[in-house]
Amino acid sequence: MSQSPAGAAPTCYRHPGRETYIRCQRCDRPICPDCMREASVGYQCPSCVNEGRKSTRSGRTAYGGLVSHTPGVVSWTLIGINVVVWAVIEATGRYGSTVLQHFGLMPGGSCASISNPNASYPHATTQQACEQLTRGDGHWLPGVAHGAPWELITNIFTHVEILHIAFNMYALWVLGPQLEQVLGRARFIALYLVAGLAGSVCVLWFSAPDVVTVGASGAIFGLMAGLLVIGHKVGADLTTLWIWVAINAFLTFRVPDISWQGHVGGFIGGGIVAFALAYAPRERRGLVQGASIAGLVVLLGVAAVVRIGMLA
Asked: Which of 73, 115, 158, 275 to pair with 19, CA 20 to 30 A apart?
């Protein structure tokens, strides 16, 4: 490998006299235009192309996943699930839908009057308190802290407003197939779900106990972070993606009724997962990737349990 003095421009490891700022996506060594070999994302050097032929024969991506010959299938499946859940909610009463009540993420619980739906009882934190405050006329809807932990995942597939699901599914359609092709199906699913879970845990901690949060936005922000991490790894031009992230960040904190908690949590969670997938050492890639993702899930689980104990 060529050695450059401190502060000097990097030079191609195969042609030491040529300055370059492009690096091989597999070995991270600097390569000049003559040594660049186009890959699925970024470029590889001739040595890594030759080494990669073995993994190509075994159907592995640059990050260890199985090569998908139909990239986009998982993304379209996720879109289909979201659309079906949205359609069921629309057909069963929209905001009054029991599907929404049991799929949306509510950290604590909510008490409402059966005879007067417009009345609310924020001081009711249990079923018994709800019955007492409403004199038996109450409807108690439990949240995560009162026996509905599945909401940490189901809310990722739940939408009510048409513009909400339209934007999220468009983003999934644009971002999903790219990451699915680069990472492989299993790793892409892990990135999507763990980012969504991270967003949910952030909502659990920082949202009002009786506020319902829905949407795939946390997982979508996780995909944005994932693409940024991988793009940075391979030296891709990320200008357009950064602009997209900046616009969405602005909307997150300026538009009312948008869960900044889910967006921020999903972005951080997705970035951590993508970093583990992209920078795991090749010699023990699968072990490091699996252990890193499992560790993050355990950490999120502990954070959720602690918060549930505070809300219960």
From this structure: 275
Summarize pLDDT for 69-126 with one digit per residue, the tens.
788 899 999 999 999 999 999 999 888 888 988 899 989 877 776 666 566 666 666 6
- Neighbour tally for 96: CB within 10 Å: 10
Are residues 258 and 213 in contact, defined by beta-carbon separation less than 8 angstroms?
no
End-to-end Cα spacing for the chain = 59
Q: What CA–CA distances, in Å, run from 259 to 5, 47, 90, 104, 172?
A: 48, 47, 21, 13, 18
pTM for the full model? 0.77
